[in-house]
Amino acid sequence: MESITIHSSSIIIPNLPTPNLTLPLSEADQFRAWTHISTVYVYKSPNTVVVVDSLKSSLSQILVPYYPFAGRLRLIVGGRLELHCCAAGVVFIEASYGGTLDDYSDFTPSDVVRKLTPEVDYNSPMEDVPMFLVQVTRFNCGGLVIGLNVSHTLVDGVSAIMFINSWASIARGEKTAESILQPSHDRNVLQAQKPFCTPRFYHCEYDVLPFLIGCSDSEEEKMKETKSTLLKLTREQVEKLRTRANSSNPTNRNIDKVVDVVNEELLQPRPYSRYESITGHIWVCASKARNINDDKSKQSTLVQIVVNVRQRLRKPIPKNFCGNAALISITPQCKFGELKSQPLSYAAKRIREASWKMTDEYVTSAIDFLATQEDTIRVKGTFWGNPNLSIVSWMSMPIYDADFGWGYPDYVGPSILDNDGKAFIMLGPNNDGSIIIVIRLQMKYMEDFKKFFYEDL
């Protein structure tokens, strides 16, 4: 492949004065890994001339209401962080590529695709690292890729998409910085109360994960070669999975008690959703692939999911909240053999249990638990690879609404998956009910995983 040529790099600052203040970060912010969410927006045939100056101008405008994006993080006592809103600005890079979009095939997350997003220098002092970086890469075929890096300590996916789509609405002339939904930067809604309360529940999601049988840590698994793949499901295939998940019950009909929280939804079961069915299917297929050459039927495994708690609290978080409002949850531990022998409903039920336990009481308890932790690195640095998975859903986010004035993107997705066991589930671009899954696994398991994934679909 040809190399990408960088033509310019500039700093964009808010076009009007913004508050100069320090924002305390919530526990949901503090326990995010200090990295950036890295995504690519692919536009195959922009229907108008892309004017970079309009992107820069609209970006400077959106940074007025979204002024924390132009700030910088600072380290404080106890390894925690605070956000200095100082209008230091965001990075904007202009680049070009001599080939075509076809050179990148389906934009499966990889080191090659990551070069379409700005490089973040994590070796620099934290106070110098931008919260938001943009790279606009033009292709000889007329296509365009906008690569974005946004600090995960600053926002979660929902807030990031709210920012990006608001920026796009200004760029295409539909909105102004004053007429967009104004973001709320008040993070007190997810702050632990002082004095700190004793957590009401035991939070197993922050325990040490299951290791491979015979291993006392995950260091050997971290060293093994991995690769990413992109898989597509049609609407018909998705419905077939849902039908499969809802057509049979596991032989053990006792619903595991995840926490002693009364959840009315558990008393009124509904059919398994697309998300529960697909996530359960991924878990089953990964467990089968990882068990293909050895008898690991008794191997423990679990799945980490990320739960948006905006509507889980008695006092719902405002729609315009800008920050992190997602907490991790985990499934009950299962065995490879159980997942292989039971119907899909067995895995789907456990995915549901992981999601449904995130009630107001449990979320509040989790925040209390995190507030008392001195070792933020231990919680943030957990390895979720073999024999476990970490699956993130973008299915509810309007990722294809980013029309900057030349039409909607043809593809949106992560540019890189950082380690073994990581997966994303996303809607397809054509509003046709299709689903895209990207996942990273050890190379020796990938072909078997894909075989099992499409078996009987």
UniProtKB/TrEMBL annotation:
<dbReference type="InterPro" id="IPR050317">
    <property type="entry name" value="Plant_Fungal_Acyltransferase"/>
</dbReference>
<dbReference type="GO" id="GO:0016747">
    <property type="term" value="F:acyltransferase activity, transferring groups other than amino-acyl groups"/>
</dbReference>
<dbReference type="Pfam" id="PF02458">
    <property type="entry name" value="Transferase"/>
</dbReference>
<protein>
    <submittedName>
        <fullName>Spermidine hydroxycinnamoyl transferase-like</fullName>
    </submittedName>
</protein>
<comment type="similarity">
    <text>Belongs to the plant acyltransferase family.</text>
</comment>
<keyword id="KW-0808">Transferase</keyword>
<dbReference type="InterPro" id="IPR023213">
    <property type="entry name" value="CAT-like_dom_sf"/>
</dbReference>
